[in-house]
Amino acid sequence: MTFRKYLVLAGITVFSTAGDSLLARGMKDLGGVSLHNVSGLLLAILNPWVTAGILLLLAYFASYASALSWADLTYVLPATSLGYVLVALVAHFSFHEAISPARWLGIVLIATGVGFVAAGPSQTPARQPKLPADAVSQEAKP
Amino acid sequence: MSEAYAWIAIALITLAATTGNVLLAYAMKRVGDVGELWKSRGLLAVVARVLTTPTFFLGVLAMAVAFYSLLFGLSWGNLSLVVPASASLTFVANALAAHIFLHEHVGRRRWIAAILVAAGVLLMAA
């Protein structure tokens, strides 16, 4: 794992968080969308918040896809959850929003989970002839 | 009634998102390390290689289904139920699917992580 690869993982977190936030902001303007009103869903793209959100989510998708080209899905995916932590911490330290004990616990669990995976190998070793004993010994190593 | 709709949306989102993730991961592994390909052959080669990988489009299609299910779910159901429930379930479903379909080595470390993250995401919504 090089510094550049960690940057790509950070990009996944930041772009998805910002994109989702903008999208949620835009959908609030539109109110309820139902099956009887599918055109409303298509027109959602015209809302500037939704447009900006989609652009950021495209950037997220590019970083996500490129990360998947050199790392396992089960390695990359936990990193995407850091966005929840990011939003909560920004809200707490910039906007002085209170964080409930349950949310602090959530932050700790997510961070622990991501740290757990990040500390391990990023990719399943190349598919050599399968040796069950091999897999076991790798699992045992920290 | 809206509760039932919300859970239908949650199931749809989880299924579609997991399918999309697995197909995309499969496609990108076939493309190979994008960073190295870019360095040696240029960005156009990367784009061309990605766009000629059929599973990439299947993955994008599944993700689009997940995205629109989420939009529906958000308007039908409670925001504080649909988003955390589907996100949380997706982490566990993905670990399972990556193990079964991608033959990724999902060891104890990654299982624990998937469960910790899923629980953490649920708590964040509390």
Descriptive report:
The complex is a heterodimer of chains A (142) and B (126). Chain A has 142 residues and is mainly α. Chain A has one domain. Chain A is built from seven helices and no strands. In chain A, helix 1 (3-30) runs antiparallel to helix 3 (48-70) and helix 1 (3-30) crosses helix 5 (82-95). Chain A is globular and about 50 Å long. The model of chain A has no long low-confidence stretch (mean pLDDT 80). Chain B is 87% helix and 0% strand. With 126 residues, chain B is mostly helical. The mean pLDDT of chain B is 90. Chain B has helices at residues 2-31, 34-41, 43-51, 54-76, 79-101, 108-124. The chains are: A mainly alpha (142), B mainly alpha (126).
Please summarize what this structure is.
The complex is a heterodimer of chains A (142) and B (126). Chain A is mostly helical. Chain A is 75% helix and 0% strand.
List the SSEs and their pairings.
The complex is a heterodimer of chains A (142) and B (126).
Chain A: H1 3-30, H2 38-43, H3 48-70, H4 73-80, H5 82-95, H6 101-118, H7 132-140
Helix pairs in contact in A: 1-3, 1-5, 4-6, 5-6
Chain B: H1 2-31, H2 34-41, H3 43-51, H4 54-76, H5 79-101, H6 108-124
Helix pairs in contact in B: 1-4, 1-5, 2-3, 5-6
Largest interface, by Cβ-Cβ below 8 angstroms: which chains and how many residues each?
A: A-B, 50 and 47 residues
What structural category characterises the helix and strand content of chain A?
mainly alpha
Number of distinct beta strands of chain A: 0
Straight-line N-to-C gap of chain A:
17 Å
Helix content of chain A: over 70%
Annotation, overall tally of beta strands of chain B: 0
Work out the count of structural domains of chain A: 1
Order of helices and strands of chain B: HHHHHH
Main β sheet profile of chain A: none
Shape of chain B: globular
Q: What does the overall shape of chain A look like?
A: globular
> What is the number of helical segments of chain B per DSSP (H or I, 4+ residues)?
6
- Counting helices, strands and paired strands, the structural category of chain B is mainly alpha
**Tally of discrete structural domains of chain B:** 1
